[in-house]
């Protein structure tokens, strides 16, 4: 470890993080720097990220808010971090994901390594033969409305790594830069489009939904893909299976 740095972060992990970000592609953030432009000065750019993250002085820039049309009408906001910030988030994800992944529910399929929508559909189809009723749900605005205090409580359950904790907190608070250039502060949610956001959303729902179902309805299997799910019910009168997500963490 570099004794002049506050946190031990491997330079090799920073390089791996860039390689993953590059493989995922993606648009430029508020600085309009593309992946190609970032890579043109790769050594210097990665050193800056490592230096700032390992010294505790990394602060994420605002997230570019992009309006995306919804199939049902209207728009939703997609948050696009800069390339450098996506690399920084990936560094944290590489460290944090192995700590939480083994604890996630076997019937959670979204944004998880080695799992896909096909897996969720397969298990759903198999169970439909054994259950007469299915309660389908879609959590409206999950990424926009996650409670930061409850989420950080869940993060603390799985790590005491100070730099992972401090940077997750900073990413949660990073403001949006709206299409008109104005800055919008955020007090809840995690930007849909961020590298770290899917695993944080899964962690939140692990306690708010998955564990809640196990405690209160252990006889009712479900399949959840991110904010979409389908618990099974044996009768139409089984009203107790209606999920109330306010029972969180």
TrEMBL record:
<keyword id="KW-0051">Antiviral defense</keyword>
<dbReference type="InterPro" id="IPR043502">
    <property type="entry name" value="DNA/RNA_pol_sf"/>
</dbReference>
<keyword id="KW-0548">Nucleotidyltransferase</keyword>
<dbReference type="InterPro" id="IPR051083">
    <property type="entry name" value="GrpII_Intron_Splice-Mob/Def"/>
</dbReference>
<keyword id="KW-0460">Magnesium</keyword>
<dbReference type="InterPro" id="IPR000123">
    <property type="entry name" value="Reverse_transcriptase_msDNA"/>
</dbReference>
<keyword id="KW-0479">Metal-binding</keyword>
<comment type="similarity">
    <text>Belongs to the bacterial reverse transcriptase family.</text>
</comment>
<feature type="domain" description="Reverse transcriptase">
    <location>
        <begin position="49"/>
        <end position="249"/>
    </location>
</feature>
<dbReference type="GO" id="GO:0003964">
    <property type="term" value="F:RNA-directed DNA polymerase activity"/>
</dbReference>
<dbReference type="GO" id="GO:0003723">
    <property type="term" value="F:RNA binding"/>
</dbReference>
<keyword id="KW-0695">RNA-directed DNA polymerase</keyword>
<protein>
    <recommendedName>
        <fullName>RNA-directed DNA polymerase</fullName>
        <ecNumber>2.7.7.49</ecNumber>
    </recommendedName>
</protein>
<dbReference type="InterPro" id="IPR000477">
    <property type="entry name" value="RT_dom"/>
</dbReference>
<dbReference type="InterPro" id="IPR030931">
    <property type="entry name" value="Group_II_RT_mat"/>
</dbReference>
<dbReference type="GO" id="GO:0046872">
    <property type="term" value="F:metal ion binding"/>
</dbReference>
<dbReference type="GO" id="GO:0051607">
    <property type="term" value="P:defense response to virus"/>
</dbReference>
<keyword id="KW-0808">Transferase</keyword>
<dbReference type="Pfam" id="PF00078">
    <property type="entry name" value="RVT_1"/>
</dbReference>
């Amino acid at each position: 470890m570099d004794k002049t740095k506050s946190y031990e972060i491997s330079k090799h992990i920073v390089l791996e993080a860039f390689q993953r970000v590059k493989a995922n592609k993606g648009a430029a953030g508020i600085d309009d720097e593309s992946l190609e432009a970032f890579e043109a000065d790769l050594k210097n750019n990665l050193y800056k990220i490592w230096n700032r993250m390992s010294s505790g002085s990394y602060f994420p820039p605002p997230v570019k808010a992009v309006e995306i049309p919804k199939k049902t009408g209207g728009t939703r906001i997609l948050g696009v971090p800069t390339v450098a910030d996506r690399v920084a988030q990936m560094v944290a994800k590489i460290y944090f994901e192995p700590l939480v992944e083994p604890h996630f529910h076997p019937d959670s399929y979204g944004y998880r390594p080695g799992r896909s929508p096909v897996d969720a559909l397969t298990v759903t189809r198999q169970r439909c033969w054994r259950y007469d009723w299915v309660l389908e749900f879609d959590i409206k605005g999950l990424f926009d409305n996650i409670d930061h205090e409850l989420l950080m409580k869940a993060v603390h359950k799985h790590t005491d790594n100070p730099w992972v904790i401090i940077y997750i907190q900073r990413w949660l608070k990073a403001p949006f830069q709206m299409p008109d250039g104005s800055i919008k502060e955020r007090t809840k949610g995690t930007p849909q489009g961020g590298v770290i956001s899917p695993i944080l959303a899964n962690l939140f729902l692990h306690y708010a939904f998955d564990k809640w179902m196990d405690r209160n309805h252990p006889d009712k299997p479900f399949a959840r893909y991110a904010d979409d799910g389908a618990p099974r019910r044996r009768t139409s009168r089984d009203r107790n299976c209606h999920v109330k997500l306010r029972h969180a963490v």
